[in-house]
Amino acid sequence: MSEVSVRYQTGVPQNLEQRFATRAAGMLPSEIRSLFAVASRPEIVSLAGGMPNLSALPMEMMAGVVNQLILSNGAEALQYGSGQGHPKLREQICDVMALEGIRANPDDIVVTTGSQQALDLISRIFIDPGDVVLVEAPSYVGALGTFRQYEASVVHVEMDMNGLVPDALRVAIKSVRAAGRKIKFLYLIPNYQNPTGVLLPADRRTEILNICREEGIFVVEDNPYGLLGFDRPSPNAMRAEDSENVIYLGSFSKTIASGLRIGWALVPQSLKDKLVIASESSILCPSNFTQLTISSYLADQPWRDQIASFCELYKVRRDAMLESLEQYFPKEATWTKPGGGFYVWVNLPPEIDTKAMMPKAIVAKVAYVPGNAFYADGFGSWSMRLSYCHPTPERIREGVKALGGIVTQEMSRRGTALK
Prior knowledge:
With 419 residues, the protein is an alpha/beta fold.
C-alpha cells in the first residue's frame, strides 16, 4: 500500500509540481483507494471497501426501468437538465426523507452527483484556508480528504459506543475559540457511522443540536445509511428537529445503486442559491438520465421492499462478522456491534500498528482499512475498519479467521519484543 502511495505522489515531474496551486499539496490518495488494486484481486477476502451488495437488486427489473424510460421519455432523459435537479425527483426525495421524520420543500433540495459532491460544494462555500471543521473521531475518509483540499483545519471530537459525546463537543468548541480560530461547521454521520457503525441516540442528537445552535455552528448531517437499520428504525434525522441550522446530505448509493451517482443536499432556504451556483459552476447540471432512472424506479417499483431486502442481506453478513470476531480474535480486542449500515470498528492493544500489519494480512489473503485513515492527524494506528457489506457470509468467516490469526501472531511477537 505504501508503494502505491509513493508512486502516486512522486509520479509528477518536479517542474510541473511547482506550477500547482498551494491547495494541490492537500490532494493525496486515500488509504482505501490505495488498497483497491490489491483488495480487488479475486483471491483476497476484502473487508476493506464499503461497496453496496447489488446481488439483491433484480437486474431484469432495472433493465426494464431503463428501457421504458428511454422509450417513453428518452428525449428528456438524454438532454441537459436543471442545475438544481429534476423537479419530480426532488418531490420524491421529500417522500424518502419523510421516513426519517423530515418535512421538506422540494425547492430546498439540490440534487448532486452523489452526496460526496454535496460535501465538496458545502466545503467550497464555507471554508477559507485555516478555518476549523469539527468532525467525529474517527470520521469518514472521503470527508477528511475534501476538508483537506479546501485547507481546513480538522478537529476531532471524542466518540464512545453511542456516538459523538456532547460534553467533548463543548470542550472542543471552547478550545478552538480560545485559540482565536473560526469554526465553520460540525460534520457527523449519526446513523451507523462510517467507520464505526455506531448509532447516535435521540437524546444526544437534541443536545448536540442545542449546543451548535447556541454557538452559531452549522451541523452537516451526512445520512447515507439511515434506512439500513436491521433491528429497529433509526431515530428521526437531526434535520427533522432543526430546519434552520442543519444541512442534510442524502444519497441513493446505499439504498438503490451507487453507480447511478445521485445524492442531494437539503439546505436552509438562505443557502440554496449559493449551492446551486456552486453546483452549476462545477458540473453544469446533474445527469438527467440517472435522475430520471431513479425517479422512474421510485414511481413504479416497490422500493421500500427493496430496502428491506438489502437490510436482511446485510444483517446476515453483520451476524457472520460478529460471530467470527468472537470466535477468532484475541480476547484483548474489542469491537462495535452495529445495528445497521456496513461497518464494524475494531480496537486492538495500542502496541499493534494496523497499517504496518497490512502486508502480512495481504499475504494471508485478507484486506481491511487501517484506523489511521479515518483521522486527520494520524491517530488510531491500533484500530481497523472491517466492512461486511459485500463478501458472502462464508468469505467473511474465512477472512476474519485469517485476520484473527495475523492479529494473534502480531500480539505475540510484539509482546515478546517488549519483554
